[in-house]
Backbone:
């Protein structure tokens, strides 16, 4: 875009309301021809919308998003292959599957976390298929990282078993200070999903309940 075009896009977005939260400033429009649904990027998970982080970076509303054509699970074992908690008994926005082995099932937020942590080593956690699996995850809106696996980066900068444990937000709002960490709530500490070398309190970076990952400014 030229500068004038960018200003026009910003002005137009300011007039559009998000179909999920109903607030103005929705800059993303569904790519389906004839669909005029607009939404904010942070609202996308709540509205079950998909943004593809490759190529033309297309976005889709809940009605027109891409669907997975994965057959019924042969084993009928309705557990996530990553966290081992229960998943839905069918493929949906929140429950995804591997197109290669057709048996792996995982929560969307689980596979997204795995993708950011695995980096260039990202593959199916069950059959270890990489290329077809990676392309399917990209098509379904999973964001990938071109970095080395986070566990390799962490081992390179600190001894094994030592976890980053302070808030690195520019302004830390925690009354207990940057070192104060709680297991849940606003003072829960989130580590960067790419490098794990910086952290933030949930409240200090305005991370909502529908947020499943956070990246530091360096990454």
Residues:
């Amino acid at each position: 875009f030229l500068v004038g075009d960018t200003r026009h896009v910003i002005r137009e977005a300011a007039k559009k309301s998000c179909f999920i939260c109903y607030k103005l400033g929705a800059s993303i429009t569904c790519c389906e021809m004839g669909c005029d649904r607009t939404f904010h990027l942070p609202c996308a998970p709540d509205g079950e919308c998909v943004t593809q982080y490759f190529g033309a970076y297309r976005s889709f509303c809940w009605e027109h998003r891409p669907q997975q054509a994965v057959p019924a699970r042969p084993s009928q074992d309705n557990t996530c292959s990553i966290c081992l908690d229960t998943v839905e008994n069918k493929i949906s926005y929140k429950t995804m599957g591997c197109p290669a082995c057709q048996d792996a099932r995982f929560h969307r937020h689980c596979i997204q976390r795995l993708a950011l942590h695995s980096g260039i080593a990202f593959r199916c956690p069950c059959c270890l298929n990489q290329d077809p699996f990676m392309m399917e995850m990209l098509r379904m809106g999973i964001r990938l990282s071109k970095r080395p696996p986070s566990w390799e980066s962490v081992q390179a900068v600190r001894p094994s078993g030592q976890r980053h444990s302070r808030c690195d937000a520019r302004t830390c709002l925690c009354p207990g200070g940057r070192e104060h960490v709680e297991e849940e709530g606003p003072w829960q500490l989130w580590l960067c999903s790419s490098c794990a070398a910086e952290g933030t309190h949930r409240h200090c970076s305005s991370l909502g309940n529908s947020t499943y990952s956070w990246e530091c400014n360096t990454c």
The domain at 70-146 is CATH 3.30.40 (Herpes Virus-1). Residues 117 and 150 are 5 Å apart (CA to CA). Confidence is low (pLDDT under 50) at residues 154-161.
